Structure formats: C-alpha cells, structure tokens
C-alpha cells in the first residue's frame, strides 16, 4: 500500500525505513512503553487483576488519544494474552528451560516481551532467531529484509521495547491502514509483558 501523495505519507515513509538506517535530522518518537511506570510494578500484583484492568492501568496515559481509543476498543472483550497460532507458542516454549542448570540471571520482563513479538510470525522468527538467546537479544545479529508490513511493525516494536529507544510512533500504531488489529493486539500484550511479566503459556 502506498500513501505517497496522501495525508498518511509521513507514516508510510517511517514504516519503510530499513532497520538501523540513520535518519537525517533525527526525529522524535513517542512510543507507548515510554511513559512513567504504571501504578503496578510486580508480577504478584498483576496476577490479582483481570486482563482488562491491566490494560487500563498500563495505558491510562493514552486514554484520550487515538491510539488509546483504538486499544480500548480492541481489548474490550479480551480476557487474556493473544497468541498468533500454535507456532507462536511453540517458538516461545523452545526458549523455556526444561532441564539442566537455570541461567544465573533470569531474563528481564523486556526479554519476554521481545521474544513474544519476534516469535509471533514464522517469517519474522526465521530472520531474527539467531539474535535471541536465553535472557538476551542481540539485534546486531538480526537485520531482517523483505518482511511484510505487519512483521516489520512487530520487529520495530520489539526493538523499541528491548532498547527503550522508540522505532515506531504512536501515530503509526493508531493507524489501522499501517498496523492491523491483530498486530496491535500483539503489541498491547507485549507491553503488558514488559511492564508486569504477565505471561501465560
């Protein structure tokens, strides 16, 4: 899809930048995981709340924005994390230790969130799996190419969450022409994982 001559041309240009490309003049990004930490901070506290309560608490700063309204509508009937098919779960489970010594440092919330996004798509995972190890992601080992728009959005959000440097804007995420409902739902769940270690297998 192309919006070169339309009002969405700015978003299209941003989405089409290849990974690690330096943009002339920099640019400001506002990503939904950047605000001050939400009221809840622990996995124990998070497990006491419903999925909808977690969404409400996590995205309270966005409630009057286009992205906030889209997230509210998208998660209105949801009861828990969404997985993108059996393959998504299988790819995640491959990184859960089942025997042998547990690594000395447990992975951070952002590692789980990044794994959740990169594993959501087979094509995306095939290009990024070499970057993922237990409790770390080295994005210098994953510079994907030829991805579909939705997979590229997942990749950019994963980088944003892991590095704390936004690679995709809130305006892009709010745009249904650029980010589908299924993709945004995965993004929402990844942010919940990053904040609360809210993870279901």
Would you mind describing this structure in some detail?
- By secondary structure, this protein is mainly alpha-helical.
- The protein is 44% helix and 2% strand.
- The protein has 10 helices and 2 strands; from the N terminus they run αααααααββααα.
- The protein has helices spanning 9-15, 43-46, 51-58, 66-74, 86-93, 109-118, 122-128, 149-163, 170-174, 181-196; strands spanning 132-133, 136-137.
- It has a two-stranded antiparallel ribbon.
- A hairpin with a 2-residue loop joins β1 (132-133) and β2 (136-137).
- α6 (109-118) packs antiparallel against α10 (181-196) and α8 (149-163) runs parallel beside α10 (181-196).
- The chain starts with 8 loop residues before the first helix and ends in a 5-residue tail after the last helix.
- The relative contact order is 0.20.
């Amino acid at each position: 899809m192309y919006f070169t001559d339309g009002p969405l041309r700015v978003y299209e240009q941003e989405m089409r930048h290849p990974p690690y490309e330096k943009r002339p003049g920099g640019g400001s990004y506002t990503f939904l995981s950047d605000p001050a930490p939400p009221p809840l901070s622990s996995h124990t506290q998070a497990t006491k709340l419903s999925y909808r309560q977690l969404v409400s608490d996590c995205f309270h700063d966005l409630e009057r924005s286009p992205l906030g309204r889209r997230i509210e509508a998208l998660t209105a009937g949801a009861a828990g994390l969404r997985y993108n098919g059996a393959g998504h779960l299988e790819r995640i489970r491959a990184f859960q230790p089942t025997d042998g010594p547990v690594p000395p440092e447990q992975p951070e919330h952002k590692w789980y969130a990044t794994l959740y996004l990169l594993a959501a798509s087979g094509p995306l995972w095939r290009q990024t799996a070499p970057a993922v190890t237990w409790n770390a992601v080295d994005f210098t080992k994953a510079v994907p190419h030829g991805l579909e728009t939705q997979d590229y959005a997942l990749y950019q959000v994963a980088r944003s969450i892991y590095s704390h440097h936004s690679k995709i804007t809130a305006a892009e995420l709010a745009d249904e022409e650029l980010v589908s409902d299924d993709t945004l739902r995965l993004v929402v769940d990844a942010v919940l994982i990053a904040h609360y270690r809210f993870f279901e297998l």
